[in-house]
Structures are given as C-alpha cells and as structure tokens.
Amino acid sequence: MSMLKPGKLPPALLQHLLTSHISPDPRVIVGPAVGEDAAIIDMGERYLIAKSDPITFATDAIGYYAVVVNANDIATRGGQPKWFLATLLLPEQTTSVTLVESIFAQIAQACHSFDIALVGGHTEVTYGLDRPIVAGHMLGEVDPTTLITTAGAQIGDILLLTKGICIEGASIIAREREEHLEHLGVPAAVIQRAKNFLFEPGISVVRDAHIAIGAGHIHAMHDPTEGGLAMAVHELASAARVGVVIEQQRIPILEEAMLLCRLYGLEPLGTLASGALLIAAPPEDGVRIQQALETNKIQCAAIGRIVPPGEGVLLDEGQEFRLLPQYERDEITKIFPA
Asked: Which pLDDT tens digit goes with each residue over 97-135?
C-alpha cells in the first residue's frame, strides 16, 4: 500500500470519504464537499458559518496565519468572521514561555485587526512534534439572502483574481529560508519585501471580499490556499460542475514571488496562494467589481471564464490550450526536508 505524501488528501480520496461517512442533517445548508470553503448551518434568522484550518508549513507568525486564513473562508461565504478558537500543539523539546507568549500575541493582534473575538481552544506541549502547529476554528454569520458558495459559479461568468498568486508562498520562503536566500545572493531588501507579503499586500482577503460584494452580484468566491491557484480553480470547477478556461498571461504574480519560486524550482501555479481571491460573476458585474477593487487599491485581473463542463479545465497559453495542472502536493513542500 502506497503511503500518502504531505499536503491535502487527493481529491478523489477525499470525495470518497465525504460521500461514505457523512450523515445528513436538515439544518446543514452546505456541508463538507471538495471545493467548498466552510460549512453553513441554519440558525434561524442567520446562518452560522463554521471553518477549521491548521497552519503546518509556517513556523514564523503562525498565530497571525491561523486567524487570517480561517477568516478568509468566512468572508468567501459573504459573511463576517466573528469568533475564533485555537488548538495550539507545541514541540516537547523546544517550547519556552517566550514562544507561547509570542504565538498568543500574534493571535491577539490578528483578532484585533479583524474585530474577531478569541473565545476558546486548547493548548498543550505534544510528544513527537518538531515545530508548533496551530489548528484554527473560525465561526461567523451571514444573512441567508447574501450567502455565497463555491458551487454557485455559472457558465458565462468571468473569473477575477485579486492581488496575485504566491503571496503566502513567497512570504513563507522568505521567512523560513532567509539565511539560505542571503547565501544565494538575494538582496536583503527583496527578502524583507517578501517576508512582509504577510501584511502587504497581505494574505487576508476579508477586505477584498467585502468590497467585491458591495460592488456587484457575485455567483461564487473561493480562496486559493494549498495547491495554489491551479487547485483552487479545479476545486471551483468541481463544486460548481462547470468548466474553466484560465488565460496564463493574465495571471498576476509579484516580482519577488516569481524570483523565489524560480530559485527553489517551484511552479507558481501550484504554490500556496492565500492573499488572492477568486470571484465568479456575470461579465457586467465583473467590470464593476474590478473597478471597485482597484479604486480601493486592490489589484484585480480578469483571468478567465466559466464554460460548459464538457470543455474541461484548461490553461490558455496563448498559442495552445492544455489541461490546467493539478498539484495534490503543494509546491512549497519542496523547500522542507523529506
């Protein structure tokens, strides 16, 4: 029996598990499914949005990462992140009071920035770990009439992308491999800018989502994370049962991110992409959304379109079309020891 590699479970295996072991509940409006960002539970006048996501690649600023990546998935539902719980697992041999205090400070900073309440969780020093791990759990709420799902994308929609790809990936590379990058001759200013991608342009898409929602009608939103933009597009196509055509030359990527990916042999399309937001909207609304985001100094590019499912999920390279690759193992894993 072959062993699974680090990263997300293969989509086919995950789909099998979800269809085999999930019990239905009439109050669950959106349950677990490949490509869906968070669960939706009917609480009467409001829907509760529930999300959990761990931080396993980064070791620096993991408290901030944990809050933001979970808040992102509440925002992609059209909702407001409100309450955060953190499970903090700490390595047995290297955990100091200073380390624990720094992680809690990071969590508090992020919660304060996004008006989120830290309401609970669990902490422990755990046998067998070589790095801290934070598993975040975010709750939020949304009006039932404004709920957005990944599955809502419709044929004819244009696909928008905010900021660019590899924002999170570049930040992690710069933070986790700073000394090696200096040894390779990468200028200190470049490394510092990439490290700061965590905050500028930032891995949060909460503001992106709120501006987009206020500017036009949106059929679907999705937050690219592990597996990068490529896997996010595949997940959206799977959830909505549509095809997608992505125009490669229209995909924005920051110069520092391109450089760091090239140095480590990473394919940008498959590298951690928190900070970008995928938006599927009718063409006329897409134009207004794009203008509103750019007016608010958030870069937004029209990178593709939603097509019938029979056309597949394709990458338009200009001269020819090919299947958009799938990255079941995020490219960022190449910088970590096997």
From this structure: 999 999 999 999 999 999 999 999 999 999 999 899 999
The string of pLDDT tens digits covering residues 82-100 is 999 999 999 998 999 999 9
Pair 163, 275: CB distance under 8 Å = yes
Q: Which two tokens stand for residue 103?
A: 């992680």
Contacting residues for 247 by C-beta, under 8 A, at least 6 apart:
303, 304, 316
Q: For the whole model, what pTM was predicted? A: 0.92
Delineate the domains of the chain, giving CATH numbers in brackets: 25-146 (3.30.1330.10), 150-335 (3.90.650.10)
Find out whether 77 and 110 touch, Cβ atoms under 8 Å: no
Could you list the beta-strand ranges (E) of the chain: 28-30, 39-42, 47-55, 80-91, 117-126, 133-142, 158-162, 220-222, 243-247, 278-281, 300-307, 313-316, 321-323
* Rounded Cα distance, 238 and 33, in Å: 9
Return phi, psi of residue 276, to 5°.
-95, 150
Query: Considering all CA atoms of the chain, what is the largest pairwise distance in Å, rounded to the nearest integer?
Result: 58
